Amino acid sequence: MRTPLLWPSILTPADEIAEVKYLYALLTGVEYSAKGWEAALALYHTSLSPPTSISKDVASGWRWIACNECILELYHLRSRMEKIQAVQLRKCPSLLPWIDSAVTRGARKRLDDYFPDIEALRHATAHKGENEVNSDVHVPDGQHFALTGFREPLRYSTPYLGRMRSLDITDESLRKVVEVVDSYLSGFESAAKELERQGHLE
Question: Rounded to two decimals, what is the model's pTM?
Answer without folding.
Answer: 0.89
